[in-house]
């Protein structure tokens, strides 16, 4: 477009100055010369220029012929010839203004600004009333970047004579200074004066195109006789404008999809028209490239990636800006490693998109480098062009948000909470910051506090989709099932195609699935008086989907067996019941049938807990035929009823403690009371490794001795331990980790003194996706029983399946 504008400007000047040629040639030596002049004015310049060159060899040319030569050579774009003729004759005669102007234009074309301006001044002095010369001088000032003088002279020109060409000149000056909107305003003034002027329409078309006003430019072009290639270019611009509009995040999803669909329909039409045109293949390919942006706005991520690979397969380069689109599509397709590589190919494709690609590909060092670079290089305030007053820098805020995301993803939740709390408190009107703070609180298990923050955020814009999504997750954690359903349904209705909405919808679907829980253990080498040898346990329960939001029916099957000195013991337990959940409460009631070799006996259990706050929970249970009854007691026909009461204090994911009391009443008259204090203290955290201290203190008392099951009169143990978890591989919902456990403590038993307790364990866990979680753990421990140290080696397993 710039070249077209330059050509039109040059032609306008040449033809304006050529009006002087006809009158000057009236005194030509013969009619042949007159005919050559007329041909030159029609664009056939070769005849006259050849005649003048031959005539010069035969004798001297007169002043008008030299002026004609300068002008016609200029029309023919022979700028060097114009200058040679000028240098040869300028000292021999006084060349008229039209000739001087032709030379000034030649120097301008060759970008020799000082020489050009000097000659324009000379020509203007010869014809001070000639506005064409004045405009040419101003245009050259603009080309020479004499901005202040060019602008003041152009404005004075319009003031003196507000005509079409004068406004075109002013538009040219603004455009040369990079002020495209000012140029558009000036050329619009000219268009209002002569709307059908071809030159003005051409300039207006250029101005609209330069300012990306593509659709009006396309409409205007249909009233003009333009080359087919330019028309295709304008069609591409109009379609690309729709792509840009569709990608604006300020628009709602439905509106963005509507615009994206319109763009895709336009591209389908253009591709169908251009596919079979050999001369249109470059435009055809460009349409395919730009169409990727519309596919991305429509969340058609698979087609973005597929079409990108098809374009690459053709062996031609793909523009850099496409890489950002494709990388975003790859991120949405959960291919972060490929997205990170694609972002990294071009410096323009960095933060924050590259940060998210690094985080989601588990490349935490790269993510930290990116966010540190943003924080270090982003000032809090910036000065906008032309304003002496600084304004807040949006990138500064973005860099801090990314830093908080890094802390959260890297398991440094205390740092994330501190940063997000500070940002939310210092910018109380920023809804996104408060939502971000609430998400960190929820990640730390402080769901009540998160709910309060989301209520504060709700004041700003209650219908914000990010707000409703976070409120839905918080409601799910708080067991506010109706609220969870309503919020999720509203989000799904308003933004069904957004990846974040699909994740929320998936969470709701999982909540409504069946749930199968299986756990058990197998003794490998042990002779514990509690479990016996060749011991094996199996516990399973199947929960149905929720009924009326709060209820779930369940049924299961449990089995335990072990061999003791007096024989083999076993217990078959078939339970069934109902679970009730609501805000801050959980209750489970169960009836069971137990068979442990002496017929079938009915059992029952009632368990419940209540959360007073994020920190305090009280819970307990009461059981007939307690599941904690030693298998050896059952083997000997002794049953037990029992229960427990516990209090849990939870600070956050790094610290919690539980105190419990569990009485048991055996059918042989023995009464046992067990006491326990256990907890967790986080010692070390990194993105893929966590180390916890797990203190454990327990004690028990029994009222009877000399019973067939292990039954110390009084005992007490202190066993501090360490628990480590190492994530070996993680890809979104697929997590493969290994666990190390160890403990070293002391066990005291009345009448038997104190002995050493040692524990070691190694396990692995695989979370296959959102619906399947499996784990296995091998444990070894050595501890005294009735004064004799026993060694136990076993394996435990568990599985949780949603279907």
TrEMBL record:
One matching Pfam family: PgaA_barrel
Domain PgaA membrane beta barrel: 510-803
Gene3D superfamilies: Tetratricopeptide repeat domain
Keywords in alphabetical order: Signal
Keyword NADP listed: no
Taxonomic superkingdom: Bacteria
Region forming the signal peptide: 1-28
A single GO molecular function term of this UniProt record: poly-beta-1,6-N-acetyl-D-glucosamine transmembrane transporter activity
Record's protein name: Biofilm PGA synthesis protein PgaA
The species this protein was found in: Kosakonia oryzae
Gene for this chain: pgaA
């Amino acid at each position: 477009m710039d070249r077209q504008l330059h050509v039109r400007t040059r032609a306008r000047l040449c033809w304006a100055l050529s009006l002087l040629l006809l009158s000057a040639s009236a005194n030509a030596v013969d009619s042949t010369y007159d005919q050559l002049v007329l041909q030159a004015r029609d664009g056939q310049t070769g005849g006259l220029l050849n005649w003048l060159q031959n005539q010069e060899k035969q004798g001297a040319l007169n002043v008008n012929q030299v002026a004609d030569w300068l002008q016609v050579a200029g029309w023919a774009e022979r700028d060097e010839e114009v200058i040679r003729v000028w240098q040869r004759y300028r000292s021999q005669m006084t060349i008229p203004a039209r000739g001087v102007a032709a030379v000034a234009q030649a120097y301008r074309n060759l970008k020799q600004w000082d020489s050009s301006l000097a000659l324009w001044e000379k020509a203007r002095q010869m014809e001070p009333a000639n506005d064409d010369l004045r405009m040419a001088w101003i245009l050259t000032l603009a080309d020479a970047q004499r901005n202040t003088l060019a602008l003041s002279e152009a404005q004075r020109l319009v003031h003196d004579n507000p005509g079409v060409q004068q406004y075109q000149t002013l538009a040219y000056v603004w455009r040369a200074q990079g002020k495209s909107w000012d140029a558009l305003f000036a050329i619009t003034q000219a268009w209002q004066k002569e709307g059908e002027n071809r030159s003005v329409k051409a300039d207006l078309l250029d101005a609209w195109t330069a300012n990306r006003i593509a659709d009006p430019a396309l409409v205007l072009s249909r009233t003009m006789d333009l080359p087919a290639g330019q028309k295709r270019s304008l069609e591409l611009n109009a379609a690309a404008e729709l792509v840009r509009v569709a990608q604006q995040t300020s628009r709602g999803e439905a509106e963005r999809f509507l615009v994206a669909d319109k763009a895709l329909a336009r591209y389908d039409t253009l591709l169908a028209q251009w596919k079979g045109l050999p001369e249109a293949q470059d435009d055809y390919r460009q349409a395919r490239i730009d169409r990727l942006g519309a596919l991305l706005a429509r969340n058609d991520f698979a087609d973005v990636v597929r079409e990108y690979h098809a374009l690459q397969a053709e062996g031609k380069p793909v523009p850099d800006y496409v890489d950002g689109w494709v990388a975003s599509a790859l991120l949405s397709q959960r291919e972060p490693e490929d997205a990170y590589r694609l972002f990294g190919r071009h410096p323009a494709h960095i933060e924050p998109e590259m940060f998210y690609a690094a985080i989601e590909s588990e490349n935490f060092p790269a993510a930290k480098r990116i966010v540190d670079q943003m924080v270090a290089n982003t000032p809090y305030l910036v000065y906008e062009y032309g304003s002496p007053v600084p304004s807040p820098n949006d990138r500064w805020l973005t860099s801090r948000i990314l830093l908080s995301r890094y802390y959260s993803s890297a398991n440094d939740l205390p740092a994330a909470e501190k940063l997000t709390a500070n940002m939310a408190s210092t910018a109380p009107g920023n809804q996104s910051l408060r939502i971000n703070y609430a998400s960190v609180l929820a990640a730390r298990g402080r769901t009540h506090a998160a709910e309060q923050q989301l209520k504060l955020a709700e004041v700003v814009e209650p219908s914000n989709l990010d707000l409703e999504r976070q409120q839905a997750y918080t409601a799910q954690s708080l067991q506010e099932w109706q609220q969870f359903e309503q919020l999720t349904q509203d989000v799904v209705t308003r933004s069904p195609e957004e990846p974040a909405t699909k994740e929320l919808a998936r969470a709701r679907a999982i909540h409504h699935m069946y749930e199968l829980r299986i756990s058990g253990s197998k003794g490998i080498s042990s002779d514990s008086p509690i479990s016996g040898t060749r011991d094996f346990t199996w516990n399973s329960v199947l929960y149905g989907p929720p009924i009326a939001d709060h209820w779930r029916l369940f049924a299961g099957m449990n089995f335990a067996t072990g061999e003791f000195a007096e024989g083999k013991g076993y217990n078959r337990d078939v339970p069934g019941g109902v679970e009730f959940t609501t805000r801050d409460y959980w209750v489970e009631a169960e009836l069971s049938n137990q068979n442990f070799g002496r017929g079938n006996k009915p059992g029952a259990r009632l368990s419940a807990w209540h959360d007073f706050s994020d920190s305090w929970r009280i819970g307990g249970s009461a059981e007939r035929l307690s599941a904690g009854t030693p298998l050896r007691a059952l083997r000997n026909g002794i049953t037990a009823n029992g229960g427990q009461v516990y209090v849990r204090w939870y600070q956050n994911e790094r610290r919690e403690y539980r105190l419990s009391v569990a009485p048991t009443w055996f059918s042989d008259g023995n009464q046992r009371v067990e006491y326990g204090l256990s907890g967790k203290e986080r010692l070390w955290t990194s993105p893929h490794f966590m180390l916890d201290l797990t203190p454990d203190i327990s004690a028990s008392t029994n009222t009877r001795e000399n019973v067939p099951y292990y039954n110390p009169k009084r005992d007490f143990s202190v066993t501090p331990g360490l628990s480590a978890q190492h994530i070996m591989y993680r890809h979104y919902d697929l997590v493969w980790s290994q666990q190390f456990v160890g403990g070293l403590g002391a066990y005291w038993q009345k009448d038997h003194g104190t002995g050493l307790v040692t524990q070691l364990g190694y396990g692995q866990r695989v979370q296959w996706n959102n619906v399947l979680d499996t784990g296995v753990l091998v444990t070894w421990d050595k501890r005294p029983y009735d004064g004799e140290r026993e060694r136990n080696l076993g394996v435990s397993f568990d599985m949780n399946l949603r279907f």
